[in-house]
Design brief:
Number of helices of chain A: 10
Structural class of chain B: mainly alpha
Largest interface: A-B, 54 and 50 residues
Helix content of chain B: 55-70%
Strand order of the largest sheet of chain A: 10-9-8-1-11
Largest sheet of chain B: none
Radius of gyration of chain A: 27 Å
Radius of gyration of chain B: 24 Å
CATH topology of chain A: Alpha-Beta Plaits
Strand content of chain B: under 5%
Number of domains of chain B: 1
Helix content of chain A: 25-40%
CATH topology of chain B: Formate dehydrogenase/DMSO reductase fold
CATH architecture of chain A: 2-Layer Sandwich
Number of domains of chain A: 1
Order of helices and strands of chain B: HHHHHHHHHHHHHHHH
Oligomer: heterodimer
Number of strands of chain B: 0
Structural class of chain A: alpha+beta
Number of strands of chain A: 11
Distance between the termini of chain B: 28 Å
Chain lengths: 309, 472
């Protein structure tokens, strides 16, 4: 019995060693508090500057921060029925960005009109100012530039696809396999503003061509439109052009009752539409159908695969 | 003070510690089979790593599939464990004691398997560290990472705390019967537990704090899992009821999972004397109660949106109720809620077998529910395009099989390392009963003196309704 009691007291002694004095407890709490405050800083200490910072700096440098916007005048869009070709905006975008099949960053949807017949709606990324995709991205791979353009850093994207679930316009595309792009696309230096070479397991979309605008050119889609239905411009300077005429952007939007797709969702897009069905270029709403989009890449990067959406 | 050598406690220890010592042929076969399935799933995943997610049936429109369904499914199951064990502990339900350990096991295992699923779904699993390096707290994914890792930590602690006295029993009772590494494991894992008054007090304080803390954590987990969906603008997901709906569905499917796993372990380890039909009936009552809650949520969700048929709702309703996904929807609502509810409702079907059938139906139904939410939800067209299809590939089927095999495998391995019934808690109940039923004689009464405590020399017949758990 005695040895048992001794053992008992030894255990009690051991337990007591584990007890914490008030001073010690306060010290520990203090250390924990400092750690808790400092913890959110750790990631920023660990990470290195990525493409995101580079783009943001570039945008912030000029005195005037451009606010890129697009107006698509549906009165002038006939889905390229007039020239009997697939939509030229889509194809020019694919060619300019080495767009992999089946991605149509600017896709021409044919929508039924309430009174019968159809209209064509060229749909690029809407460049939302309250962008659901930017909100949900867990790693900040999708981000908005000071110019109001939503870009994707494919070197940071983890491929969770929550942004695709969040986008109400179906404007995001995933590289399910090694994208079918021409070999020369692999030679380019990667940049979120042009997004090639495409990276497997990451998301891509229309980038609004701010790199083109900065060098004084219109985006590929606007350049290629045979009926000049796409205006591109700057809300800050209040000016836009379709390559033929120059308009005062605010006045042009108001006088033509420009609207947003799914405006009720409150995403605040930078792409505006003017209602129509191609009447300005002689299309009747009853003339339905358009040619399917083509991807011109005859020669493809090694191991590339094509998929369907 | 001397214990009777063949008292109920000794009997209990013999039965519960048995599986830790002896391993049968059936067990080896089962584990071998499960390992094979897991290896096959690893092979399937290796092809996905090699070729990318193109090997799955997911595409741009229906961009999530089996992996996210399984994520929601397993995280759902994980709720049973802790919530049931914690809630039953909080309300001091006596019948819970032989059940809690298994419930807590299931929580930890289901949570680990479930947490793995979104990682398999990533296009760039190599960039998982980005979640730490560049994590944005504005994203529901980060909420999930935070809440699931908190819940996993909490439920491991909550599993481990009541294990300590049992590990000490293993350390003291299982001498040379077990290999050296197991003896070492029990010695280290029981952290010097001697059952002193002070240790008991510390343990009860720790347990009391954990059981209260773990409940809000568990609720938060499935709430933020639902927010992965509800934080988008998609028609069927854009709903304020989703958080509560998911939490209820999680507990619902979790109870069903406990019932089934319990039945398997009870049969495998001959625990019929401790886990009685009464336990299954009681869990059946909880399951039955939750069928009502689930039906209520479905009525809330579908009647409120269906009455108005706003926007894309009509497309979703037609595909659910009469068209493409009608089999899934009705299997879920009728097979997964109404039928199990009726089985529990009628005394004639409210039997051991009946409860097992109901639990099976609920698990199938809840898998269907997640399928409907993820796949049918994503199928609703956002723009004027033809709705697409999701056809899972052999890779996804294999990984699903692997996930279930992994779930079974870890439980099987656990059952060889830890007692599947909380010995000390059940034994404590014996002692309480002893005192309660012979207060005048108190402790001086021999342990076998109470009729209720009388250990049966043979395992009781199927359907016997006694033992410590059956007393309430």
């Amino acid at each position: 019995m005695e040895t048992r009691e001794q053992a008992e007291s030894r255990r009690e002694e051991n337990l007591r060693k584990w007890q914490v004095s008030r001073r010690r407890l306060l010290q520990l709490l203090g250390v924990a508090g400092v750690a808790a405050v400092a913890a959110p800083l750790v990631p920023s200490l660990l990470r290195r500057g990525g493409n995101r910072e580079a783009v943001a700096d570039e945008g912030a440098a000029p005195a005037r921060v451009r606010q890129w916007a697009m107006v698509i005048d549906l009165r002038r869009c006939d889905g390229c029925q007039g020239i009997d070709l697939p939509p030229q905006c889509t194809e020019a975008c694919i060619q300019g960005h080495y767009g992999p099949e089946p991605m149509e960053w600017v896709q021409v949807y044919e929508q039924e009109l309430s009174g019968g017949g159809t209209q064509f709606i060229p749909t690029p990324c809407q460049q939302c100012q309250n962008a659901p995709c930017v909100n949900v991205c867990p790693v900040g791979a999708t981000f908005a530039t000071p110019e109001g353009v939503v870009l994707i850093d494919q070197e940071r994207c983890i491929g969770c696809r929550l942004c695709m679930a969040a986008c109400p316009y179906d404007r995001r595309f995933f590289n399910w396999g090694d994208a079918p792009v021409p070999p020369e696309a692999q030679l380019a230096d990667y940049d979120p503003e042009h997004q090639f070479p495409a990276k497997r397991g990451t998301v891509m979309k229309c980038n609004f061509c701010p790199h083109m605008a900065r060098s004084g050119k219109l985006p590929y889609c606007a350049q290629a439109c045979p009926t000049n239905a796409i205006y591109y411009g700057d809300l800050e300077e209040d000016i836009a052009t379709n390559g033929l005429e120059l308009v005062k952007l605010s006045q042009f939007l108001s006088e033509n009752q420009a609207y947003h797709l799914k405006a009720e969702l409150g995403t605040k897009p930078r792409v505006y539409y003017i209602a129509g069905h191609g009447q300005a270029v002689g299309r009747s709403p009853d003339h339905e159908g358009r040619k399917p989009t083509r991807w011109p890449w005859q020669e493809r990067a090694a191991g590339a695969q094509t998929w369907t959406r | 003070m001397d214990k009777v050598k063949n008292g109920p406690r000794e009997q209990l220890e013999r039965v519960v510690l048995g599986p830790l010592v002896r391993t049968g042929k059936g067990y080896r076969l089962l584990v071998g089979g499960l390992v094979l399935v897991v290896l096959w799933a690893l092979f399937a995943y290796s092809t996905q790593l090699r070729d990318g997610l193109i090997v799955t049936g997911m595409r741009d429109r229906i961009l999530w599939g089996f992996y996210i369904i399984l994520f929601v499914f397993f995280i759902g199951i994980s709720h049973a464990g802790t919530l049931i064990s914690a809630i039953l502990r909080v309300v001091k339900a006596q019948w819970r004691t032989p059940v809690t350990r298994m419930a807590e096991f299931i929580t930890v295992v289901a949570l680990s398997v479930g947490g793995l699923m979104p990682m398999l779904d990533l296009g760039r699993p190599d960039r998982i560290p980005n979640l730490v390096l560049f994590g944005r707290w504005q994203s529901p994914i980060l909420w999930d990472v935070l809440s699931i890792s908190t819940y996993l930590t909490g439920s491991i602690i909550y599993l481990y705390l009541p294990l300590i006295p049992d590990l000490a029993i293993c350390r003291d009772r299982l001498g040379n019967e077990v290999p050296g590494w197991k003896r070492w494991f029990f010695r280290v894992a029981s952290v010097g537990w001697q059952g002193t008054a002070r240790q008991k007090k510390l343990l009860s304080i720790a347990l009391a704090s954990m059981m209260v803390l773990i409940i809000p954590v568990a609720v938060s987990v499935h709430t933020v899992v639902s927010w992965i969906f509800a934080m988008t603008l998609r028609e069927p997901w854009n709903s304020t009821v989703f958080g509560a709906y998911f939490v209820a569905g999680a507990i619902f499917s979790g109870i069903a999972a406990i019932i089934l796993v319990m039945a398997v372990l009870r049969r495998a380890f001959h625990l019929e004397a401790y886990i009685t039909h009464k336990h299954f009936i009681n869990l059946g009552y909880m399951l039955g109660g939750f069928t009502l809650i689930m039906m209520y949520f479905n009525v809330s969700e579908y009647v409120v949106t269906g009455y108005k048929m706003a926007g894309e709702t009509s497309f979703h309703f037609v595909q659910l109720m009469v068209r493409e996904y009608a089999p899934f929807f009705w299997l879920y609502t009728i097979g997964g809620m109404v039928l199990p509810g009726l089985i529990i409702l009628f005394p004639k079907t409210r039997t051991f077998t009946g409860v097992l059938v109901a639990a099976g139906l609920v698990l199938v139904g809840m898998w269907m529910e997640r399928f409907i939410i993820v796949v049918a939800g994503l199928r609703v067209p956002l723009m004027p395009y033809d709705p697409s299809w999701y056809v899972p590939t052999w890779v996804e089927w294999s990984i699903m099989a692997g996930a279930f095999a992994m779930f079974g495998l870890v439980i099987a391995v656990f059952s060889k390392l830890f007692p599947v019934i909380s010995i000390w808690e059940v034994a404590e109940q014996y002692e309480e009963h002893e005192v309660k039923e012979a207060p005048a004689l108190g402790r001086s009464l021999p342990a076998t003196g109470s009729l209720r405590m009388e250990p049966t020399s043979e395992p009781p017949a199927e359907g016997a309704d006694h033992g410590p758990g059956g007393t309430r």
